[in-house]
Amino acid sequence: MNFLTGAKRFLLSSLLVYLFLKIFFISGLFSEYVQQIILLAFIVILTSLGLNVIYGYTGQFSLGHAGFYGIGAYTAAYLGTVFQVEGLLGFWPILFLGGAVAGLLGYIIGVPILKLRDDFLAIATLGFGILIRVLLDNSDKVSELLGGSRGFIGIPKIVNLETAFWVMVFLILVTRNLIFSRFGLFWQCIKDDELAAGVFGINTAGLKLMAFTYGCFLAGIGGALYAYLYTFLHPSNFDFLKSIDFLIIVIVGGMGSITGTLYAGLLWVAVIEGLRIVLPAQMLELRWVFIPILLIGVMMWKPLGLLSRKESNLLGLGERG
Amino acid sequence: MKALEVYGLTKNFGGISAVEDLSFSLEEFETLGFIGPNGAGKTTVFNLISGITRPDAGKIIFFNQPIVGLPPYRLAHLGLSRTFQNLRLFNSLKVKEQISAPLLAAKGYGLTSAIFRTGQFETSEKTAQYKTNILLDFFQLTDKKEWPAISLPYGEQRKLELARALAMNPRLMLIDEPGAGMNPREIQDLANTLKKVKEQFRLTLIVIEHQMGLIMNISDRVVVMDFGQKIAEGLPAEVRSNRQVIEAYLGEAAV
């Protein structure tokens, strides 16, 4: 078992970041609010990484990613409430199930819609995202617990620095191992030229489905973490605009770069929440002027994203096994 | 043994009949030249054989196995390979990865092996690397194996494409206009390369080409197509003097 081959530098930097954050967290230098934002950043990175696998590496344009994020969140919250999970021990299976249900749904949806390409796939996934939002809005008709448009309340707060951070680190490593294996290679072949990929022995339908399922699984894990961090879910947190957030992170970071998604995810949360602190309250809405300007600037400066397709040496993520 | 048998192959695009009732066959280790004016349907025939397009009617038998309806990747695993008129390399991949991708598609490892980097992962990747190096050596691309494929000059991209098509150890290879955009000198080199490749890898070939010199040089037999139909078949010398063939290429007045 060489799960960690070539990951020494990444693990070391992770450990340093963790210790650094831990000091700030326990010393109270970071307020409760800032702590939550930081954990949210990890969740956003993880979910965006899922979209990067689907879109950045495999080239399947999805506008419904937030739908799977929501499925993960609601599944985990629902199961946790039904089985009265309150501690970390019971949380792990719930977390996994959140991811698994989102992944399974991705698989089921993927079979028919991944036959579509480009714009058509975008429309189909967009439709799916909207469908999930509508379902969540009316979920109280299925079970009172789900809360419908009033939102899902009463989820215990279980996710802390350790859970969010190390789950992210672990799944980044899993993703890295997949990307730098034959599966990642095939995904990139499909993105470059699907027809040629098929002719050279790659089961394109199967591998697209695999990328989509795995990407949705990551979104589901992200959603489950989100549920147990914020303790409250509302359908509006998982609508179409959220999908755009993830898409922006993938594109700004660089399609086909794990490091890119990592940096862009941090940047995205930092800018949105940072502006909330910097701007006076009555000018808060100006965020949505500054952020697009910033995005336009970044895209003009780096049209292929901050890291294009590269991995940073700093993290040692680009080393093949 | 017959490598390929095609019976009554027909394909219409809308109202246009691209291939009409085409039949031909070839023996193992034979080289078949495939010629005809532009738009005669040659590339469509390749697409039909390699499973990219489905025929409206007809049978295709590959080493005694009917293959109509099988997806392209299955055909690749059965030993059918091809090149493209317009290259179609994987643009974001390195030179060596172009070749290791089909190699790893032919023989690989499972998902858990990939995630946990098991021994099977190591062995499989190493074998692929080893075979990739052999092919790169054969086509004199070794010193450029870390290059992005798109930064190779055109001639070497063509070589790389040939190397990629050979990676899965095919039994039959369809080569679509290998000489496109080459000068007479390069064509001569290409003819030698193709002969060498055929010998080395014990291949059966079908070659589409407009350069008559090349076709006459390498083919054992030639099939001529025009307007989706086969208008002549025979030894290169016979075909060259065939009245219908000259008509198709030069017009009736020329005869």
Put the structure in a nutshell.
Chain A has twelve helices and no strands. With 321 residues, chain A is mainly alpha-helical. In chain B, α7 links the parallel β7 (172-176) and β8.
Structure description:
The complex is a heterodimer of chains A (321) and B (255). Chain A has 321 residues and is mainly alpha-helical. Chain A has one domain. Chain A contains twelve helices and no strands. In chain A, helix 2 runs antiparallel to helix 9, helix 2 (32-57) packs across helix 10 and helix 7 (182-192) crosses helix 9 (204-230). Chain A is globular, with a radius of gyration of 19 Å. The model of chain A has no long low-confidence stretch (mean pLDDT 92). Chain B is α/β, with parallel strands linked by helices and 255 residues long. Chain B folds into two domains: 1-79 and 170-255, P-loop containing nucleotide triphosphate hydrolases (Rossmann fold, 3-Layer(aba) Sandwich), CATH 3.40.50.300; 90-167, no CATH class. Chain B has helices at residues 42-49, 72-78, 95-106, 111-116, 119-138, 154-166, 184-201, 212-218, 236-240, 243-250, and strands at 2-13, 16-27, 31-35, 57-62, 65-66, 80-82, 172-176, 204-208, 221-226, 229-234. In chain B, a hairpin with a 2-residue loop joins strand 4 and strand 5. In chain B, helix 3 (95-106) packs across helix 5 and helix 3 packs parallel to helix 6. Chain B starts with a strand and ends in a 5-residue tail after the last helix. The A-B interface holds A 1-3, 5, 174, 177-178, 181-183, 185-186, 188-189, 191-193, 195-205, 256, 309, 321 and B 50-52, 71-73, 76-77, 81-82, 84, 88-93, 97, 100-102, 104-106, 108-109, 111, 114-118, 121-122, 124-125, 164-165, 167-168.
Which helices and strands occur, and which strands form pairs?
The complex is a heterodimer of chains A (321) and B (255).
Chain A (H helix, E strand, L loop, with lengths): L7 H20 L4 H26 L7 H18 L5 H26 L4 H20 L23 H19 L2 H11 L1 H6 L4 H27 L9 H14 L4 H21 L8 H15 L20
Chain B lengths: L1 E12 L2 E12 L3 E5 L6 H8 L7 E6 L2 E2 L5 H7 L1 E3 L12 H12 L4 H6 L2 H20 L15 H13 L5 E5 L7 H18 L2 E5 L3 H7 L2 E6 L2 E6 L1 H5 L2 H8 L5
Parallel strand pairs in B: 3-8, 3-9, 6-7, 7-8
Antiparallel strand pairs in B: 1-2, 1-4, 4-5, 9-10
Helix pairs in contact in B: 3-5, 3-6
